[in-house]
Amino acid sequence: MTQFSINGRGYAAEPAPGQCLRTFLRDLAVFGVKKGCDAGDCGACTVHIDGKPFHSCLVPAFRAEGREVTTIEGLSGCGNDLHPTQQAFRDAQAFQCGFCTAGMIMTAVTLTDAQKADLPHALKGNLCRCTGYRSIDDALHGRCNIEADLPGRALGASLPNPFTDAILTGTARYTMDVAVADLLHLKVLRSPHAHARIVTVDKAAALAVPGVVAVYTWEDVPKRRFTSALHEDHLVDPDDILLLDDVARFAGQRVAAVVAETEAAAEAGCRALQVTYAVLPAVFDPVAAIAPGAPLLHDKDHVESNSNIYCTLQGEIGDVAQGFAQADVVHEETYSTTRVQHAHLETHGSIAWKGEDGRWHVRTSSQAPFVVRTKLAYVMGLSPRDIHVFTERVGGGFGGKQEMVSEDLVLFATMKLGRPVKWEWTREEEFIGATTRHPMTTRVKIGARRDGTLTALDVEVFSNTGAYGGHGGETLAAAMGSPIAAYRCPNKKGIGHAVYTNMVPAGGFRGYGASQTTFAIEGALDALAGQLGIDPFTMRRKNVVQPGDNVESIWKEPSDASFGSHGIGECLDIVERALATGNGVAKPEGADWAEGRGIALAMLECGPPTEHRSGAEMRLLPDGTYHLACGSTEMGNGITTAHKQIAAAILGTRVEAVAIINADTDRTPYDTGTFASTGTVVGGKAVHLAAQAMVEDVLDFAGRHTGVPRDQCRLDEDGVICGNRRIALSDLHAEGAKVDHRFMVTRRAYLSPRTIAFNVQGVRLAVHRVTGEIRVLHSVHAADIGKPINPMQCRGQLDGAVAMGYGWALVETMVHDREGRMVNPQLRNCRIPTFADTPHTEIYFADTVDSIGPLGAKSQGECGINPVAPAIANALADATGVRFTHLPFTPDRLFTTLSAA
Ligand code: FES
Ligand code: FES
């Protein structure tokens, strides 16, 4: 046995041939070492070897022999105190999901002062997808962002995440951070063809690989079609997927699953499979896919009239032809947006096993465990009661985990083999096999009178839903909803098609369809304002919807969305003021640099357009503290912190006095899932109602117990004051126990009616006319999110959303070849933003209190992404006179366009 020293402790162990240090450490249950890529790109696996930072996925394990290896678990030595860098991350709350944090800290502790002064360079090897790096910058410059937890002061306080210390010390347990006895590993072979019939799969060579225990193909699995999209109403998505199919409809689709004693054996088994494909004609573009004679992907159950159109949405209010006839100026242009991936640092994965209770247990990285349970029960022919689905800590989601893409095969294999089975996706699988944002092409025609009053708006959208249709209709509905409804205009018309193509399927992604058409409409409005010689702020103020207006896009039917608060005017004022004040950053010197300023706004109906429900259960515990159970998933969205604060605010206590569990089908009330802002507006509402019910329950009992009228009783942190008497809650609980009063309440909340949030982004940038390089000089964002429950956290969510917007607009590109295969399925080549790519953004809030959302709050992190790309496009147009209508704005594209202009 080889001797290793890890965190000051000796280990005698033998790495497998070729094994990297990352997997070796995790095999020893050192789970603070994370995997984001296994390619040296993300830094989540950073450890110290003899005090120097290394990406452990790039280091052969045997090289650590005789060296001192330190991971996040060993950073602070034997004491319980945090290392100063951990403490700095605590004070600044420099994380959201926390999946990158251990690696980030291990790099950060080695930085010199000179390196800290140049973080874009010093942190180039560590990626964070959640924070936009601002809070990390705060931590490394000694800024403190948190406040004290005071009784009755929870609402509006910047309180730390309750799991802070676990995240910072590497003891927080994410989906794959568990050692399971007798575990089998699943891997899949994915199709190299974008469209092919699978004629035969010869399993013999794979089954002969030592360690392989089973191989499954389409012939072995249940034949119930389902959708991987996770919605309350399964009818809003087409049931067009099988566990394993005999037709591959995109390059990257699962063809066969191999289960083995080790991951390496499962991968070797995949490589040994002999598959005979009959390659079919493929189509990748939605317009080509609806042309006569285009290859068809699905049978008529899933499409409109023997075509590749999954669904069409259309409508008209007023008379658009007449509206254009009344217009003095008309602008018409086609805008297109690209496919990008969520790139949450924790990849998809799940583990399933049969429990001693005879039921099936699934530990998964999901935004919607309850709907996963329902879907698994349907596909496997089980009762939902026989399945338990839960999350531990989830390392980011952004909509990418609103899909059932791993749990199905894992449960199937476990049920077949009777042993626990795990499937952890690789980064490449995330790019080629998970969902992406829907690329959309949007033609906008917009007309106005000379004074800027809009007279007509006509929108046509082609959405590329890829090989499967999950989220295709809902994202299209969102695309044709808020961005059109944001403006008063008597005549609006739209038609949109979600079209199947032989591309990787699209799905839910922060902004959910509205991001794409916001890019188009905000660009078109800006161009129209330019034609009229009207300032962009004035143009928006003149036309944006106002309280009392009907919130309508292209449909005459009444909407359930209304203004619980209306802060768009204030957001516009804030951004205008901030840009006018400036930040002192000058454009680079040289005649080739042009400077421009652009803004865009976005409106969001908070919550999905279809049904959604959440429950919360609250108990008073014998020690006088509270226990809250809520089905929402914590994935870096800060929902556990927000829910605790809502509860503590109602109960008049400290947040610390409210313990929470979440996202567990056995232990928490039902919750549709955490997406589209529902964690705050629906889950938060359920918590609000449950806490109110708990107050009533406690005061009613206290009044009865003391004989003091109920209206003379009130909660006082950890006690109740009844008249002149104060009773500790622990004593009250004891009195309740004597008469079997349980102090337990459960409440449910539903989505409708939905309130509306607004965001405005302002950008001042410089663009180099020759090289196409863009430098963001000033970035300002104002959000109307109602009452911020936790301002620090809300700012962090917006930092992350805006950073994602910059990534989408400027650097992220999924490149596919002519056969539909992705050629850059790596973080370094697809380019999610690094520290250096992410401008610092000033974040402001409108001072509003929402009348619909819980305690005045509404959507926080969803909509911030939407105005970023159009604001950049508008700034580019201002700088160069050229309107860029296709994302992303990479230097090569800008160079080509500008040199032709
Ligand atoms: S997992 Fe090692 S750098 Fe990403
Ligand atoms: S906190 Fe950095 S990836 Fe989530």
UniProtKB/TrEMBL annotation:
Residues 1-75 form the 2Fe-2S ferredoxin-type domain. SMART domains: Ald_Xan_dh_C. Belongs to the xanthine dehydrogenase family. This is Molybdopterin-dependent oxidoreductase. SUPFAM superfamilies: 2Fe-2S ferredoxin-like, CO dehydrogenase ISP C-domain like, CO dehydrogenase molybdoprotein N-domain-like, Molybdenum cofactor-binding domain. Pfam families: Ald_Xan_dh_C, Fer2, Fer2_2, MoCoBD_1, MoCoBD_2. Keywords: Iron, Metal-binding, Molybdenum, Oxidoreductase. CDD domains: fer2. The keyword Nucleotide-binding does not apply. InterPro entries: 2Fe-2S-bd (IPR002888), 2Fe-2S-bd_dom_sf (IPR036884), 2Fe-2S_ferredoxin-like_sf (IPR036010), 2Fe-2S_ferredoxin-type (IPR001041), 2Fe2S_fd_BS (IPR006058), Ald_Oxase/Xan_DH_a/b (IPR000674), Ald_Oxase/Xan_DH_a/b_sf (IPR036856), Ald_Oxase/xanthine_DH-like (IPR016208).
